[in-house]
Write a structure and sequence with these properties.
Layout (H helix, E strand, L loop, with lengths): L2 E5 L3 H12 L5 E4 L6 H10 L7 E4 L1 E3 L9 H8 L9 E2 L8 H11 L7 E4 L24 E4 L9 E4 L1 H5 L3 E6 L5 H8 L17 E5 L10
Parallel strand pairs: 1-10, 2-3, 2-6, 3-5, 6-9, 9-10
Antiparallel strand pairs: 4-8, 7-8
Length: about 220
């Protein structure tokens, strides 16, 4: 499927703008962790401070308590939620619970939910959410949330949304910056889909890639 590739001076700021626009009552938004998204969350909070009746989900979570420094929830809380005048309805993955139980609970909670927007990153190995290269989860067609084995540091188990949830998402936004991600970006967006690069397989009904010049440096655009 076609990916809209945008090379920008401030991709995080643009991602924040898309989040703010999507944060309307009744919307279902899936957020992520990682090294790039903090600026997007801060921008979204500045642009739209009231997230009343917005449903916030998580693309993945590590098997850690919510106050752990490796928790995606903690990152979202510090960079987005704490800056809002009116908070959203939170649907947190219970990282403090055994991963199989947490995944089962999230699968059930997601019943009937179609995401309006999901914000994803891409790892240097080509993973997105906690869908790692050649993982069995890439073949999932029924489950909405899955337990995932650790694929990179920190080496803890995880819970991740399954590919079908992203496939039905209205808008899937990839936010990527830095030359260290350039090879993964090339494989994700300029080569044929491949299990070695999960981000090449995960698409929404509309997919937008927001990149800085360094991340886009190996693309022929």
């Amino acid at each position: 499927m076609t990916v809209e590739i945008r090379v920008l001076d401030d991709p995080a700021g643009v991602a924040g703008g898309l989040l703010a626009e999507a944060a309307v009552p009744g919307a279902n938004l899936a957020l992520s962790g990682g090294s790039t998204v903090g600026g997007a969350y801060e921008a979204a909070a500045r642009l739209q401070g009231r997230w009343t009746d917005v449903h916030v989900w998580f693309g993945d979570e590590r098997a850690v308590p919510p106050d752990d420094e490796d928790s995606n929830f903690r990152l979202v809380r510090e960079q987005l939620l704490d800056g809002l005048a009116a908070p959203p309805v939170l649907h947190r993955i219970l990282g403090e619970e055994p991963v199989l139980a947490a995944a089962a609970l999230y699968h059930d909670e997601l019943a009937g939910v179609v995401l309006d927007l999901a914000l994803n990153g891409i790892g240097a190995d080509g993973h997105t959410a906690s869908l790692f290269p050649n993982a069995a989860a890439l073949d999932e067609t029924e489950r909405r949330a899955l337990a995932a084995e650790p694929g990179l540091e920190p080496f803890v188990s995880r819970v991740t949304l399954a590919p079908p949830v992203f496939a039905t998402c209205s808008v899937l936004v990839y936010l990527v910056s830095g030359v260290g991600k350039a090879e993964a970006v090339r494989r994700a967006f300029a080569e044929a889909p491949d299990r070695q690069t999960p981000a090449s397989l995960v698409r929404g009904r509309r997919t937008i890639a927001l990149l800085d010049a360094a991340a886009a440096s190996l693309l022929d655009i």
